[in-house]
Amino acid sequence: MRRLLRSIDFVLLLITALSLIAGLMFAALGRTAIAHALWTAGAVPVVLALSVSIVQALRRHEAGIDVLALLAIGFALALGEYLTAAVISLMLASGRALETYAQERARREMTALLAHAPRYANRFEAGEWCRVELDAVRPGDCLLVRSGEFVPVDGTLASHAQLDESALTGESVLQSRPPGEAVLSGVVNAGAAFEMVAAAAARDSTFAGIVRMVQSAQQERSPAARLADRYALLFIPVAMLLAGGSWLVTGNAVRALAVLVVATPCPLILAVPVAIVSGMSRCAKRGVLVKGGGALERLAQAKIMFFDKTGTLTGGHARLVAVESDPGTTPDRVLRFAASLAQASGHVISEAVTTAARERNLALAVPARVVEQPGAGLTGEVDGRVVAIGSFAYVSTVAAPAQWSKAFLQRVANEGASAVFVGIDGVMAGAIQMADQIRLETPRALRLLRQEGIRRLVMLTGDRRDVAETIGATLGVTEVRAEQTPADKLAAIHAARAEGTVIMVGDGINDAPALAAADVGIAMGARGAAASSEAADIVLLVDRLDRLVEALRVARRTRRIAVQSVVAGVALSFAAMAVAAFGYLPPLLGAMLQELIDVAVIVNALRALRVRSTATTGTLARGDADRLKAGHVELGPVTEQIRKLADELPRLPRTAIAGALDNVNESLTRELVPHEQRDDTEVYPDLARLLGGEDPMAAMSGMHHEIFRIARLLRQMTADVPIDGPDADSIREFQRLLYGLDAIVRLHCAQEDELFHVLGEGA
C-alpha cells in the first residue's frame, strides 16, 4: 500500500508539472484554449485524489483538511482561473510528495530493522547441516550460523562468535562473545561460522517480538497528529468564513479564491507526524524502540519516574565484592579453589565465582568427584584436596566455623549481599561476598534525569528496607519503597498517576503489571523478560540505563518541534489569508507562498532527526576501556589485603605487626602506586582531551596524590616501628590510615570505572 501511495504521489507530481509547463508553452504561442485545457487536465487528477483522501479521512472519523484544497481548485476552475488551478495542483502534488519523502526518511531506521528478519536456519540433522524454515526450529536444536548470516532465534553460543549487534543496539562496534553466553536473534555473524543451541522458537525470540513492536509503532497515530486534526477542525470553518466574508463585503470572488488558496496547508498539518516519526526514528537509531508516537509524547510530559531495582538500577547478576580468608591462607587461594570446584555447577552464583577468578587471571584446576546438593553447595576434590563451597550451614557440616565467620555473616546481611563459604580439607578457609552491584551508568543517568526536570525518582524493590535504603542513599533517589510485591508496585503507579504523567522502568516478569499501568512503561529489553518488553511502551534494546536520558531529550525536543510546526504553520496561513482577504495577495502568488510555508514547516519537522545525544566530546576505543577496567579488577587482591590487615591489626601479636605492614607496603609499592602513577601520566592526559575543558581530571588526579601520600606515610611509620612492636596509639593510627586508604582506593576505582564506561560506550 505504501509503495502504491508513493507511486500515486509521483504520478500526480509528474502530471501536474508537465501539464503546467505544456500549458505555459501553448499560452506563449497564443493558443490559450489549448493551454486552459492542459491546465484543467493537470488539475482533475489532483481533484480525484483529494476526493478519495477526504472520503478515507471521514471513514476514519478524522478531520479532512484536504477539503480546503479541493474547494480552492474547484473554485479556481469555476472562475476560469485555470493557471491558478494548475499551480495549486502542482503545489499540492509536490507537497504530498515532499511529505511522503519526509516520512519515509524519518522511518528509515525503524523500517530497516524489519529487513533484518531471518528467513531460515541451518539445523544439524542426521549427521549433516540442513537448511530449514524458521518456524521449524525448536528449543534445543543445534544450529549453525555462517559468516554474514543473521542469528535466526535466541539461543546459547556453543563456540566463540564475533557479532554485529548494531541492528538491535545501535552500537556499531563488533562484540566478541565467548561460548556459553546468550545470543539474540537478529544480530549478524561478523566473524567465522559458529554453532549455537536454540533457546526459543522463532515466534518467541527477541527479534520477532521487536518486529511486532515496530509494526505496531508504525501503525499508531500519535496524540500530536490528533492535536493537528483538532487544529484542522478550527481551521476549516475559519478559512471558509474569511473567504465568504471577503466575497460578500467586496463582491470579488477572486479574493475568496485567494483566501482558499493560502488555506490549503495539507503538508503543513502533516508535518506533525513527520516530527513524531523523526523522533521515533532517532530513538531507534540509538537502541531505544518507541512503540508509538503516543508513548513519545507522554514521555516528553513526564515528571515522575519509578524504577525497579534488580536488573534496572543494578546489573541483575551477582559480582564479587570481597574475599575473606583465614589467617593461614590468602584471598587468591580461597577464590581459586572455590572457582575450580564451581566450574562443575551451572548455578548462577557458581558461574559468578568462576568469572571473578578468571577476571583475576587465576589458573583453575579441573575438579573431581563432585557432589552437588541443590540450593546448598558442592563438595569435590581440587588438586587432591577436599573442597566444599556453599552456604554457611552447608560448609559448616564439613568444616569447623571460623572465628571471623559470625562477623562476616553480619556484614553480608547488612549490605544485602550473598556469601559463598569455602572449606578446604575440613578447615573453613574463607568466604566470598557476592552482590548485585549498581550499574556503572546508573548514578550518571539519575543525575541527568534530575537535570532534565524529573522531580521524583522512586526506587521499587522487594529487598529488606535497610538494604534498599542503603542503595537508595548511594544513588540519591528521592524515595525508596522496599519489600514491594507486584501488587504493591501496581498500587504505587496508580496512586502516582493522580500527580502527573508517570514512567515505570523495569525488566522482570513481576514488573509487567506496573509497566502496563504506567503512562509510559519502559523495559530493559536487552536482557529483560519478554513479558516486560511486551507490556512496555518503550524498550531499551541496549543494556544501558543512560539511553533513557537520550530518549527523554528526544521526546521533549520532538514535541516542541511538532507544536512549532502546528503553531507556526497555522499562524502563517492565517496571516496570508488576512492579506489575501484585503486584496493584496492574488491567487497565483498565494499558491506559491503557501507552498513555501509548507516546505519550511516540513523541513523544520525533520530537525527531530538531529536531536543531540548524551555523547561526550570523544570516546575511548572499546578495547582501551575494557583494559582500563580490567586493571581495577587486578587491584582487587591489594584492596582486600589492606582491608583485612586493618580489621586484624588489634588482634595480631605486636611483634607480628611490622611484618604484616611490610607485606602491605610491598603490595602498594609493587602494584597500587605504579598503577596510579601510570594512570596519572599516561591515561589522564588522553581522557582530558576527550572530555575537553582546561583541566577536567584535576579532582581525580588529586585523589592519586592522596593515595601516594598515604602509601608513603605508611612506609615511613612502618620503618619506625620498634622491635617489640607498636604501642596502642600507633596501632590505632595504622588502622586509621589503612581504612582511609581502602575507602579512597575503592571510591576512586568506582569513579574511574564509571568514566571509562561512559567514554568507552560512546554514550
Can you give me a brief rundown of this structure?
The protein is an alpha+beta fold. 59% of the residues lie in helices and 15% in strands.
Features:
6-stranded antiparallel beta sheet; 5 domains; 28 helices; single chain; Rossmann fold; Calcium-transporting ATPase, cytoplasmic transduction domain A; 59% helix; 7-stranded mixed beta sheet; alpha+beta; 763 residues
Give structural notes:
A 7-stranded mixed beta sheet has the order 10-22-21-20-11-18-19, with helices on both faces. Strands 2-1-3-9-4-7 form a 6-stranded antiparallel beta sheet, with no helix packed on it. A 6-stranded antiparallel beta sheet has the order 12-17-16-15-14-13, sandwiched between helices. By secondary structure, the protein is α+β, with helices and mostly antiparallel strands. It is 59% helix and 15% strand. It has 5 domains: 2-109 and 221-279 and 556-610, no CATH class; 116-215, Distorted Sandwich (Calcium-transporting ATPase, cytoplasmic transduction domain A); 286-314 and 439-550, 3-Layer(aba) Sandwich (Rossmann fold); 316-438, Calcium-transporting ATPase, cytoplasmic domain N (3-Layer(aba) Sandwich), CATH 3.40.1110; 622-761, Four Helix Bundle (Hemerythrin (Met), subunit A), CATH 1.20.120. Helix 21 (530-535) links the parallel strand 21 (520-524) and strand 22.
